[in-house]
Design a protein that fits this description.
- By secondary structure, the protein is of the alpha+beta class.
- It has a single domain (12-104), classed as Malonyl-[acyl-carrier protein] O-methyltransferase, zinc-finger motif (SH3 type barrels, Roll).
- The protein is 24% helix and 17% strand.
- It has a two-stranded antiparallel ribbon.
- β1 (12-17) and β2 form a beta hairpin.
- The two termini are 19 Å apart.
Length: 105
């Protein structure tokens, strides 16, 4: 089994929780139910809340993507890294710090 922070050899899908879309190991290809806890690719342990669950009576929406999960997925797949500062004020510093951590490994 791989480490949640590397994700090497695992399949990952996006799950809303904690106000962001996080990557989680694809133990299920559907959204997790309310109350389910999971460890995201960025290493956070999160619990799915009612606001994170989509359904016929709850229209879909997308919370902002977790920058750390996004960058780790890109590194794992060999995709280009995003340019800093392209997704809103204040994100450039987080992205730069995360990028430096990723490039150091």
């Amino acid at each position: 089994m791989s480490s949640p922070t590397t994700g090497e050899g695992s399949m990952w899908i996006w799950q809303q929780a904690g106000g962001h879309r996080h990557a989680r190991e694809a133990t299920s290809h559907s959204e997790l139910p309310e109350g389910q806890t999971f460890v995201s690719l960025c290493g956070e342990t999160l619990t799915v809340l009612n606001r994170d669950v989509h359904g016929p009576n709850q229209p879909g929406w997308l919370d902002p993507t977790c920058v750390t999960c996004d960058l780790q997925i890109r590194v794992n797949l060999g995709l280009p890294l995003p340019r800093c500062g392209t997704d809103g004020a204040g994100s450039a510093n987080r992205e730069t710090q995360t990028r430096r951590k990723m490039e150091a490994h």
